[in-house]
Amino acid sequence: MKHVYILFGLEAYLLEQKKNEIIRNTLPLEEIEFAVSVHDAREASIQEAIDDCQTLSLVGGKRVVIVKDCYFLTTEKSKEKVQHDLDQLYSYLESPNEYTTFILIIPFEKLDGRKKIVKNIKKLANVYEAKPLKGSKLFDWVYDRSRKENISMSTDAINLLMNYIGSNLFQLEQEIVKMALYIGKGNELGVADVEQLVSRTLEQDIFKLINSIMNKEINRAFEILDDMFKQGEDSIKIINLIARQFRIIFQLKVLRKQGVSNGVMASKLKLPPFVVSSALGMCEQYDLDQLLHILSNLSNLDFKMKTGQIPKELSLETFLTQIA
Q1: Which of 86-100, 133-147, 176-190, 255-269 has the lowest mean pLDDT?
Q2: Quick one: which H or E segment has residue 37?
Q3: Core-most of 148, 161, 177, 298, by most CB within 10 Å?
């Protein structure tokens, strides 16, 4: 049985969950506080952690030793003055202390395959990769997480939540727990609940603003815009975010005409699949010439606002009226 774990990848939530799972499977609950030690690779050498691995537990039995941010297993050129002896680490991994579970956490996308230790990592340790969740995997995660809170979510509610929050699992979990407390166990979350309860961001309001415009709901659009102004949002920032959304719609429309699939669109534009799906629904409202005209007007507005040629808020309201 291997007593060493290599946890790497960019999804911090999954790294944290895997680390906690290993600890729970190794130690009794009452020993966790005393039998787990944590080292930071940017502050202490790997040799110190290895020495710790050889130390007996204060309560007897097993121990867990964790080393955070093991950048030395990646290609990063660190400015830290800490020296890590990878030969000593390799020797320890070949013959680890059977009473110590050793966890190395590497919050990077890839390991450096040129290093001897990395080349042999799968023979020496249990390797776990924490990839950011996308598309159907992210949808399934939200669905399963809501079930753990004893609530259900409609498909539209899940898609809207992902649209609002993105793929940040920590934030998604926080919102699911909060909404579950509000509606109560055994109930279903719908779109209206997500709109009412999820903490809003400016980007979310921009999406709703443009959606209102495209649905010819100009009064609703003005309500959203007025709310942004009351929250102190700057007109130039709003203009730039509107322009970003229309650029995405323009690019998607071009790719759709070329027969490109949704998945390839998401990859080309480096967008989450659910963002692509939502934006594609807006593509039919304008043709390419209209979108180019809107983007040109937004560019002119941005320039005139920055140079003080026009009143910001009034000009933004006028622009929304023109494109609705």
Answers
A1: 255-269
A2: strand 36-40
A3: 161
Q: Could you tell me the pLDDT band of residue 78, with boundaries at 50, 70 and 90?
A: confident
Residue with tokens 């659910």: 274
Tokens of 160: 């809207």
Spatial distance between the Cα atoms of 104 and 41, rounded to a whole number of angstroms = 9
Cα distance between residue 275 and residue 248, in whole Å: 10
* pLDDT score of 218: 87
The residue type at 107 = P
In DSSP terms, which residues pair with 95 in a beta bridge?
A: none
Summarize pLDDT for 92-107 with one digit per residue, the tens. 999 999 999 999 999 9
Dihedrals phi, psi of 106, to nearest 5 degrees: -125, 95
Distance CA 103, CA 171 (A): 25
Indicate the residue type of 288.
L
Burial (0-12, 13-18, 19+ Cβ within 10 Å), 133 = buried
End-to-end CA gap in the chain: 65
DSSP 44-77: S-HHHHHHHHTSPPTTSS-EEEEEE--GGGSS--
User: Which stretches of 184-287 are DSSP H helices?
Assistant: 191-197, 202-214, 218-230, 235-257, 262-269, 273-280
Q: CB of 106 within 8 A of CB of 71?
A: yes
Say which amino acid occupies 175: E
Show the DSSP H helices in 121-234 as ranges: 121-124, 135-148, 155-165, 169-183, 191-197, 202-214, 218-230
How far is it, in rounded angstroms, from Cα 224 to Cα 209? 6
